[in-house]
Amino acid sequence: MGQASPVPVGETPALSTGRRWFFPSALLHELDPDAARAGRRPRRTARDWAVDFSCFLLAVVVGVTAVEALADNPHVPDGLAVADQVTGALACAAVWLRRRWPLGLAVALTPLGIFSDTSGGAGLIALFTLAVHRPFRYVAWVGGVNVALVPLFYWVRPEADVPYPVAVLFAGLLTVAAVGWGMFVRAKRQLMVSLQDRARRAETEARLRAEQAQRLAREAIAREMHDVLAHRLTLLSVHAGALEFRPDAPPAETARAAGVIRESAHEALQDLREIIGVLRAGEPDDTGRPQPTLAALDTLVAESREAGMKVSLDHRVEDPAAVPSSVGRTAYRIAQEGLTNARKHAPGTDVTVTVTGTPGTGLTVRVHNPPPEGEVPPVPGSGQGLIGLTERATLAGGRLEHGPTPQGGFEVRAWLPWG
């Protein structure tokens, strides 16, 4: 009977293993994308066997009823009645092939319906199956031919006790009802397939959105790691270098440098633990850890001065607390990265940090340093921080420019919206 390999339905979220017997094999085949792509024929489920047996039994019952009507019909000779019964038996047996060849079976039973009363039930079942499994264009042609042949059938084989118009009308209505029921079943299956496909797409989109959110969170963590750790480790490197190249430094200066190294290393390790903890959890940092704002710029400059930098701060914003937190945090990170770069690439120079702005005009942050004296060894990984700063400023709705000045120094200048 043309059974094929089992159809895997493990990827169909709405159909559990215990409920698959209840659904048609054709529907399970359409809901399983792997089987559809592979072109495998669906295996009949327990429901399919029950439905096929019911259709066969219905065709047999209709055929037996027609045999009794043939015996009472004087217009049908005995030889034709025997041929009618043999044809009807073959048509009933062919009902088992309706799933494999729905169009061929319906076309084959259409002309038999003109000469065989006992194949009428099988013909209606074939029309129903055709309407379920094939597009409307096939159903319209075959169903239309069947309806058109109904008057011819009752003209060739008139009923003994039923008027001709009544018999034609009743048979025509039965044919239309079988086709309409089959189209309804097909539409219902297509609706279920559409809903299942929509559910799969929604799950896929939700998973992609979650992955994208996680990726964006990790990128934000990476930027935060660079901004924080680069500043701490630069302080550590500067003071460690001073201790290395000045072993004869006064004890007070040595103790101060060692204190800065110890404090910077401790803070860097603490930041690193928090960031690694967030990465292990796979979630954004929502623990409420305070983020720097524009009001913390004085502390940043003081920390840089304690590390031995020459920094002058020109803070012209009257009320730093009025600056939006996201804008203030971005301005702080820009100043922090500018000071870190100046410490690495222009050690010993006078660095100027200028912050100006008012609501409506925006916030401007400028970090400038003159050219360093003497040769400065290249620092690995240079330029990555400026790329991150440009991205930060763009995400905040502003812009950032950086590059050498005509006098040979370097300047980072950013504008952020405020208003």
UniProtKB/TrEMBL annotation:
Regions crossing the membrane: 49-71, 105-131, 138-156, 162-184
- Coiled-coil boundaries: none
PANTHER family, per this entry? NITRATE/NITRITE SENSOR PROTEIN NARX-RELATED, NITRATE_NITRITE SENSOR PROTEIN NARQ
Query: If you read the UniProt record, what top EC class would you report for this enzyme, in one word?
Result: transferase
Is ATP-binding found in the keyword set?
yes
Domain of life of the organism encoding this protein: Bacteria
Output the Gene Ontology terms for molecular function. Answer: kinase activity
Enzyme Commission number(s) from the entry: 2.7.13.3
Query: What does the UniProt keyword field contain?
Result: ATP-binding, Kinase, Membrane, Nucleotide-binding, Phosphoprotein, Transferase, Transmembrane, Transmembrane helix, Two-component regulatory system
User: What species is this protein from?
Assistant: Streptomyces violaceochromogenes
Annotated Signal transduction histidine kinase subgroup 3 dimerisation and phosphoacceptor domain residues:
218-282
Catalytic activity from the UniProt record: ATP + protein L-histidine = ADP + protein N-phospho-L-histidine
Where does the signal sequence lie? none
What is the name of this protein? histidine kinase
